[in-house]
Amino acid sequence: MKAVAKDIYYVGVNDRQKALFENLWPLPGGVSYNSYLIVDDKTVLVDTVDICYSDLFFKRVAKLLNGRKLDYLVVDHMEPDHAGSIRLLRQIYPDVKIIGNKQTFGMLAGYHGITDGLHEVKEGDTLDLGHHKLSFYMAPMVHWPEVMVTYEETEKVLFSADAFGTFGTLDGGVLDTDMDTDRFWSEMTRYYANIVGKYGGPVQRALKKLSGLDIQTICSTHGPVWTRQSGDVIALYDRLSRYEGLDGVTIVYGSMYGHTEQMAEDIATALSDGGVRHIAMHNVSKSHGSYILRDVFNYRGLIVGCPTYSGQLYPEVEMVLSEIKLREVKDRLFSYFGSFTWAGAAVKHLAAYAEAMKWEVVGTPVDQKQGISTEEQCIALGQAMAERLRGTNK
């Protein structure tokens, strides 16, 4: 068990078995479920783990307690991948007092039938453990309504629930100083876009609330413990929750027989020739939606290409667009193109989508009939987006 600060220990587990997080999002690198134990005059466990790993988890907790009782369990988040082991924990430590807020306790009763031995905390309440002192801050809708975060004032540690989480297991190291964290940044963006992305407003409010704290270490419920790079982690969440994209372009397209794909290729070439260095291309029939959403959140420009399918959008494109709309992504520069054989409709649907999202449309949309070449129009569309990203075509 790794110490993350004085008398604060990591007791989480790795999940290398699950293929899909929430049965939706691919986990090629697995995921960690993080829990933390504070051993002071009073002992405190912060969150638990998925019930599938409860046996290993309880062994780690018992080893660190070394015969001592567990005084408190802080529940920052009730999602089952973190709260799944609470009922079993209460059976092992029947006298443990469970700390949470009013919303927490409603879910605790619903999921586990636990209604006693509870200690309710409100905004700014504190708990003195001896050397350590905890304070509690509500963070509703980051990304569930009961979410709160816990700040340990002595060591300046923030237990942040799912905020600042990332996909990916912890392969030996726990602290960011003990590992190469390069692989986690893209996965943090993917995690944010898919799990938290809809709730930019609540994230901004939480960041503002926490801005007055001296946060030296961030202990999320997924991914590394952030120490040296904690400032970078907060900065990334700040940017993503403001829907501020980097100067790059995500090209999303569907193509049945290659015509729409060739249009996408022409546009990408024009973007590159125009100086755009960050271009992410996704064929919706091959790229999982979670990776598309990651790049849509990451880049300021979005170009969508779609063939007409039974008078509507190509189904896989329509699905991705619905996921973007669900997350209420704001302030994107949008271009679009399409193709058809006998009755074009996709481009009209994309125009209506842009209007509904209140995005700025860049360039002239391109609509290709059958195999009739639209190369020059596609190049012009790509050039227009490149110029707009440079700020020369407003």
TrEMBL record:
Pfam families: Flavodoxin_1, ODP. Its cofactor is FMN. GO terms for molecular function: electron transfer activity; FMN binding; metal ion binding; oxidoreductase activity. Residues 249-386 form the Flavodoxin-like domain. PANTHER family: ANAEROBIC NITRIC OXIDE REDUCTASE FLAVORUBREDOXIN. In the N-terminal section; belongs to the zinc metallo-hydrolase group 3 family. This is Flavodoxin.
